[in-house]
Design a protein that fits this description.
Helix 1 packs across helix 2. The chain has five helices and nine strands. A hairpin with a 5-residue loop joins strand 3 and strand 4 (48-49). The longest helix has 16 residues, at 79-94. The strands form three sheets. A four-stranded antiparallel sheet has the order 1-5-6-7, covered by helices on one side. It has a three-stranded antiparallel sheet with strand order 2-3-4. It is an alpha+beta fold. The chain is globular and about 40 Å long. Bound molecules: zinc ion (2 copies). One zinc ion binds at residues 16, 18, 21, 42, 44-45, 47.
Length: 162
Amino acid sequence: MPKFFFKKNDRVLSYCTCANEPAMSSFQLDCPWCDCGWLISCSKCTRAFTFAEVRETDLSLLELGRRESTARGLTNVSEDEIAEWAQGMSEAVDRFDVGDTIVYLDGSYWKVDETNIEFTGDFATHKLARLPHAEALPEPSRLQTTLGNKDYWLPRERQDRE
Ligand SMILES: [Zn+2]
Ligand SMILES: [Zn+2]
């Protein structure tokens, strides 16, 4: 069975009230501090939440891709584009195990308890002892004040970004 990211819970920060729905792939805009760079969206209501879980699913990734284009209101997505999306998502989910708790940051998915993370994302270069999502578990407001703040992102912006 294929694996995919599903909404896990409403902890820390969640605008979505659905339960257990599949996630949508990331669609990061040029304003990652607005949520699009550090939260995951629900494929049913398209609202964002913090924690996803890797689960096995009866749905194929192609079906999930079609579901996502519908949720986004896209009408002219070709089967080739869906197939490409499915391939990309299957690679993204593949490095995780069923049951892992996943968060999103700047172009990549991470296991919430990963440590010493250094990477260049879509927008910024990050060096983190722990993920802000994990640090926010005991103190949810911390996520907005770190990743939700331009002051986190702008000084770290990639110099080679167009
Ligand atoms: Zn944004
Ligand atoms: Zn939802």
